[in-house]
Design a protein that fits this description.
Layout (H helix, E strand, L loop, with lengths): L7 H6 L37 H8 L9 H7 L14 H14 L35 H14 L2 H11 L6 H8 L26 H10 L5 H14 L32 H14 L4 H15 L6 H11 L5 H17 L27 H4 L13 H13 L16 H22 L4
Helix pairs in contact: 2-8, 2-12, 3-8, 3-16, 4-15, 5-6, 5-16, 6-7, 8-10, 10-11, 10-12, 12-13
Keywords: Plasmid
InterPro entries: Terpenoid_cyclase/PrenylTrfase
Protein name: Prenyltransferase
């Protein structure tokens, strides 16, 4: 899943930013409205609101070297087989609430009070997440599995079996991923559901990288080949665009513009660069892209959630950790000032939807900090993060899947996107799960 949205109004406000327009796969300049909620998303995630969306989706389930995504999957212990029984969403949410209320030291009923007066920010470094939070259990996984077996593409079914089932060999996942690879080494054929056709696009790469990371298959050889492909599509400014002119003949959402002279975008470049930096690949492209992303992050003023997520993806892997922490703190200030993240799902009126976003297309703390070790985790209190995770857990539908939050432009793409969103939700819940 990746974030693929470009914003018209936001881009105008940032026209002098070295990174170019603020969006990547979705543009809100001419964007129709889209609709409602989801999770931070894993491969195949990064095409919801524009470019931003598709790319965010893909990287939601990132793994690192060995893979952030794989770490997210294993921190809670070994893979768990689903149990029997399929209670509804309300029952699962109630179980989670009851579990939280039983925790030692937690006030019974209601939300735990925020630790600081500022409703958006914690003091100091990201708090160590408390143990004993059962955000995900066998029932949640089984319900999601029923949905994925019924509605998922081969890729999502293979990923689910590998990440949450009893399949230990990633070969099936990688074979399914290879079906989306073009002859030139890029990825196409709807890997990112909002981008159709056989012409490889940069916006599809975050989804591919997430799969390679979570399977432990992103090695130096693969990474160098991907960097060779990226070098061939990099704009003169050092960044990669979300989409290339080669997409023009093929179906795409009406909010996804195609420029005759593409420029680099932080929304695309940041998501792609993060996994390659974690791997430490020896190739000129990451060095050039790092310079581009540093300038783009430092130039951020008016922004939107999908661009923030791309910036965080870069900052979490940036080699200069002192600089990254400083920029993350500044970016957190922007997020607070512009009210870009929904801190309490019971009060959506307190967040500002960016221009071009669909009604209900909110971002919660776990969307910008999909792992507890992200620099963005320090932007939120424990209580704010818990509320977001509780909302995410309760958003699982009766069919076992999670909904998409962006506008539907094609029935087919919605059907193809929900399985990726569902896996992203499971990975986020597992990343924050701290049960022994």
């Amino acid at each position: 899943m990746s974030f693929t949205r470009q914003q018209g109004d936001v881009s105008k406000g940032r026209s002098k930013n070295p990174a170019g327009p603020a969006g990547s796969h979705r543009s809100t300049t001419d964007s129709p409205t889209r609709s409602s909620p989801g999770a931070t998303t894993v491969a195949s995630a990064s095409s919801r609101v524009s470019c931003a969306r598709a790319m965010a989706r893909s990287t939601n389930g990132e793994c690192g070297r060995p893979g952030w995504a794989s770490l997210a999957v294993t921190t809670s212990g070994p893979k768990r087989r689903p149990s029997t029984g399929t209670p509804g969403t309300a029952e699962v949410a109630g179980h989670l609430d009851a579990h939280l209320d039983r925790r030692p030291g937690r006030p019974r009923g209601g939300h735990a009070p925020d630790a600081v007066a500022d409703p958006f920010k914690t003091r100091g470094p990201a708090p160590a997440y408390r143990r004993g939070m059962a955000w995900i259990n066998d029932t949640v996984i089984e319900r999601a599995g029923r949905f994925l077996w019924a509605s998922g593409r081969v890729l999502e079914q293979r990923r689910f079996a590998f990440l949450f089932g009893d399949e230990d060999d990633p070969a099936g996942v990688l074979t399914a991923l290879d079906a989306y690879r073009g002859r030139d080494g890029g990825y196409a054929y709807g890997l990112e559901p909002d981008v159709r056709g056989p012409a490889p696009q940069p916006i599809a790469l975050p989804a591919a990288l997430a799969v390679l990371e979570e399977t432990g298959a992103l090695d130096a050889s693969r990474a160098r080949r991907l960097c060779d492909w990226l070098a061939g599509v990099t704009a003169p400014d050092g960044g990669v665009p979300a989409v290339l002119p080669t997409l023009r003949p093929y179906p795409r959402p009406p909010w996804l513009p195609i420029s005759g002279e593409p420029h680099g975008e932080l929304l695309a470049t940041g998501q792609i660069l993060g996994p390659l930096l974690r791997l430490g690949v020896d190739h000129p492209w990451p060095r050039t892209a790092t310079e581009f992303c540093r300038a783009a992050v430092e130039g951020l003023r008016q922004t939107h959630p999908y661009e923030v997520r791309a910036a965080v993806a870069f900052l979490d892997a940036a080699p200069d950790r002192t600089w990254a922490r400083r920029q993350a703190e500044r970016l957190g200030d922007l997020v607070r000032e512009q009210r870009l993240v929904l801190l309490d799902p019971d009060h959506p009126e307190r967040v500002r939807l960016a221009p071009g976003y669909a009604p209900g297309e909110y971002h919660l703390p776990h969307d910008v900090a999909p792992r507890p070790d992200s620099l963005a985790r320090a932007w939120f209190t424990d209580a704010q993060t818990r509320r977001g995770l509780r909302h995410l857990a309760a958003a699982q539908r009766e069919d076992g899947g999670w909904p998409i939050t962006w506008a539907r432009w094609s029935a087919t793409t919605e059907v193809e996107a929900r399985p990726g969103v569902t896996l992203a939700a499971l990975l986020t819940l597992r990343a924050y799960d701290r049960t022994p």
